[in-house]
Specification:
This protein is of the alpha+beta class. It has 2 domains: about 5-165, no CATH class; about 175-295, no CATH class. Helix content is about 55%, strand content about 10%. The chain has 8 helices and 6 strands. A 6-stranded mixed β-sheet has the order 3-4-5-2-1-6. Helix 1 packs antiparallel against helix 2, helix 3 (about 110-120) runs antiparallel to helix 4 (about 130-140) and helix 5 crosses helix 8.
């Protein structure tokens, strides 16, 4: 007996229910906001003789409420799937028309504007809050947001792995940003693979770079079970952050781990244990092979 059609139908119904629930949530949120905004306006009519109470307007206020809600939905979606991932689902990663609610924009079609005009008793800048809320519900598609977040959740793992791979390949100069033709020669010394990279004597530039590598390195280590890269970047970050003085040439960091670093005046050499090196190259091959340099390994 084939149950695939039934499973597909269940998934479709689940998605439909989820989209309608998200739309209902936005409707209820804006209805509650409209009631409170009207109470604010009523209070302002009494306080106006004592205080200036025109600092808010319905158009901008509704935009802020909806955009804050969109950010919350992105954060909640991230929390549901974030395990070994360092990236987050942000409004900017959604399709452009779902990233925010914007009333004053040229990109929206005339059809939507016409529907808004049928609701508004005056211009959007002067309309009462409940009319602005109705326009917001026309302009922003909460059901489409549900489907976009579902896709973003499904893609987050793949996106995080690729981002981690790209960042690691860049710090080790293993990607094609540095060369598209000549292969990179990687030598062995005392049983470890040596990868040479740049090191800037301006520590404020170094510490930000190593700080930004901590999360991708953590993603890599959680995925592969490898250790040493995260502790190496943390050690370099802390050392660069704590002083503005140049390190002495051949200063060693993270000694005793699978990934050690030796800093020279204008370069850094990573001494990587074979198992850690193999895990790194395998990870880069799996997740950013299109930007990985050709390697010649001793």
């Amino acid at each position: 007996m084939n149950c695939q059609p039934s499973l597909f139908h269940d998934e479709v119904q689940k998605a439909k229910h989820g989209a309608l629930a998200l739309e209902k949530e936005l409707i209820e949120l804006l209805a509650d906001f409209a009631a409170k905004y009207e109470a604010y306006e009523l209070a302002g009519s009494f306080l106006g003789k004592y205080l200036r109470t025109d600092s808010l307007n319905p158009e901008q206020s509704v935009e802020k409420v909806v955009n804050s809600w969109i950010k919350t939905k992105c954060d909640q979606a991230t929390d549901k799937v974030q395990q070994n991932h360092h990236l987050k689902i942000e409004p900017s990663s959604l399709p452009e028309d779902l990233q925010s609610l914007v009333f004053r924009s040229r990109r929206h079609s005339f059809e939507i504007d016409a529907r808004m005009k049928a609701i508004l008793s005056k211009s959007i800048y002067e309309a009462p809050v409940r009319e602005v809320v109705q326009c917001a519900l026309l302009r922003y598609d909460a059901q489409a947001l549900f489907h976009a977040l579902e896709k973003a959740k499904a893609d987050l793992g793949k996106t995080s792995m690729r981002d981690a791979a790209y960042r690691l390949s860049k710090v080790f100069r293993l990607n094609t940003d540095y060369s598209r033709t000549s292969p990179l020669q990687i030598k062995r010394q005392k049983g470890r693979y040596i990868i040479e990279s740049y090191f800037i004597d301006k520590h404020h530039r170094n510490w930000t770079e190593y700080r930004d590598l901590i999360a991708p390195a953590n993603t890599f280590e959680l995925e592969t079970g490898t250790e040493g890269f995260l502790s190496c970047f943390k050690t370099l970050f802390e050392a660069c952050y704590s002083t503005s003085d140049n390190f002495e040439s051949r200063t060693k960091f993270n000694v005793g781990s699978d990934v050690e670093a030796v800093v020279y005046k204008e370069k850094i050499k990573y001494h990587i244990a074979p198992s850690a090196f193999e895990a790194l190259i395998s990870f880069l091959t799996d997740h950013c092979s299109d930007t990985l340099r050709d390697l010649e390994v001793e």
